[in-house]
């Protein structure tokens, strides 16, 4: 009876439509056609069963009943029983229904890089004397 109003409406990409390039949605989007390139939205995106997005995608929540291939950054990912996600996914939560497919890698946070060999130098405070070395060898055995 009372439903939450959607701000900004809904964008629908029809099954017979194909778009290539950078795309930004200012409202929720329903994709039945094909998008290729960088796609971004601060709202939710749904890929219908025949829909396809290839490239980089950044959105609030993604529901996949069709196919996504590429690099995804979202708060929540939902892969339905007919959905396929192939690529690198960075999300807070992920739900995969029976029959849904996830092929790729999931990352949760920024990757921490190890320091280079020039930066990573062991800190030596005092050299060990022979008695300390022998004691250490005996305690290891």
Automatic annotation (TrEMBL):
InterPro entries on file: BacA/B
Pfam families the record matches: Bactofilin
Region annotation Disordered: where it falls in the sequence: 116-141
Ranges annotated as spanning the membrane: none
Compositionally biased residues, Acidic residues: 131-141
Superkingdom assignment: Bacteria
Family: Belongs to the bactofilin family.
Protein name: Polymer-forming cytoskeletal protein
Source organism of the structure: Shewanella fidelis
Lineage, highest ranks first: Bacteria, Pseudomonadati, Pseudomonadota, Gammaproteobacteria, Alteromonadales
């Amino acid at each position: 009876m009372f439903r939450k109003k959607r701000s900004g409406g809904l964008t629908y990409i029809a099954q017979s439509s194909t778009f290539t390039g950078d795309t930004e949605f200012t409202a929720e989007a329903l994709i039945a056609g094909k998008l290729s390139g960088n796609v971004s939205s601060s709202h939710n995106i749904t890929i219908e069963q025949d829909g396809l997005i290839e490239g980089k995608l950044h959105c609030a929540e993604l529901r996949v009943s069709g196919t996504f291939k590429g690099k995804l950054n979202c708060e929540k990912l939902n892969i339905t029983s007919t959905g396929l996600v192939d690529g690198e996914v960075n999300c807070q939560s992920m739900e995969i229904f029976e029959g849904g497919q996830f092929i790729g890698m999931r990352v949760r946070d920024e990757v921490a890089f190890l320091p280079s060999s020039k930066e990573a130098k062991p800190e030596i405070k005092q050299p060990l004397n022979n008695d300390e070395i022998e004691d250490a060898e005996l305690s290891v055995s």
